[in-house]
Amino acid sequence: MAPSIRLSPAARSIFDEPLAIAVQGLGPRQQVTLRTSLRDETGELFQASARYQAGDDGELDLARCPALPGGSFSGLEPMGLLWALQPQKPFRRLVKRDVQSPFLLQLEVFEGHGEAPRRLLAQAQHERAFLRDGMRRVPVQEGRIRATLFLPPGNGPFPGIIDLYGTGGGLPEYRACLLANHGFAVLALAFYSYEDLPKEMKEFHLEYFEEAVNYMLQHTQVKGPGIGLLGISKGGDLCISMASFLKGITATALINGSVANVGAVLRYKDITIPPLGSNSKRIKVSKSGIADIIDVLNNPLEGPDQQSFIPLEKAECCFLFIVGQDDRNWKSEFFAVEGSKRLQAHGKEKPEIICYPGAGHYIEPPFFPMCAASMHLLVGKPVEWGGEPKAHCEAQIDAWQQIQAFFHKHLTGKPSRISSKL
Question: 233 catalytic, yes or no?
Answer without folding.
Answer: yes
